[in-house]
Amino acid sequence: MCTISSAVNKVLLRSRCACCWEIVINTSENGGKVVVCGMELRPEPQKGGVDKPAESKGQKVAISPGNREFSGDSLPEKINKQDVLSLAQIDVSQSGTSAIATPALPENLIPRKPNEGPPLSLPNSAPFCKGGRLTVFTESLIEQLWLLLSIGFSRNQAAAHLGIDKSSISRAVKRDPNLALELRRAEELSDLQPELTLMTEARKNWRAAAWYLTHRAKNPRPLSEEEKEERHQAKLADDRRTAIEMCAFVEHGKEEAAKSFRQPRPGARRRRRTQE
């Protein structure tokens, strides 16, 4: 904002060099002239001139590169953004010879007074968002995984078919016990379906029955978790029983060896007499 203590007659922009420019504002009061260099204002005495009537207050003056003059009534309606260096508001007052210059800002950047515009208010709070990454196990994906396991796919094959990592299934099973039960049930159904088909065909054709028995002998059905636990407990009991029997056999052998060592051998006395 430029405030000058006289009426404005003419504005002249003169370029000194590529990076320096000055504005010369001719005024009618006291025949003075103000030179604006950059953002500083300094009064400069006028060497000559004729006073002119004062212009109206609050006229806008546009300044563009090069030596161009604009009077109060001859400002262009449109000025290119590339040509405009600043936009200043010149007000006429009756006091002082000093002037204050500030660069003009776009309308959207001009600070408003406290009593202007809508009152300030806090922005709306963001909706609650649960932390962590989104899970890939949606209802549709779980259904597809269950279907693949039920027709004989392994978990690694099902993960590769669905485009997910196989470790994702393991982590999801650890977090959700219900999901673990559903997947185990699907795997059990995959083992049961071929057997049912072969048993149905074995009733009609003995070759199918023979193939089924041979296949079961070479490729036994995988055990469930309960069956694995039962076999493990039976193996532990068998190992414990074998260890007890081995200990008893060793103790019995030690006793027999001690008895045979204390009793003389047959013919030992006869050999002793012969030696004497």
Description:
It is a single chain. It is elongated and about 135 Å long. The longest helix is centred in the C-terminal third of the chain and has 38 residues, at 225-262. The chain is α+β, with helices and mostly antiparallel strands. It is 42% helix and 16% strand. Helix 1 crosses helix 2, helix 1 (139-150) runs parallel beside helix 4 (177-202) and helix 3 (166-175) crosses helix 4. The chain starts with a strand and ends with a helix. A hairpin with a 2-residue loop joins strand 4 (33-37) and strand 5 (40-44).
What is the secondary structure topology, with strand pairs?
Blueprint: E1 2-4, E2 8-15, E3 21-27, E4 33-37, E5 40-44, E6 59-63, E7 68-71, E8 86-92, H1 139-150, H2 155-162, H3 166-175, H4 177-202, H5 206-218, H6 225-262, H7 268-275
Parallel strand pairs: 1-8
Antiparallel strand pairs: 2-3, 2-7, 3-4, 4-5, 6-8
Helix pairs in contact: 1-2, 1-4, 3-4, 4-5
Region (Disordered): 45-67, 255-276
Biased composition (Basic residues): 267-276
Biased composition (Basic and acidic residues): 45-58
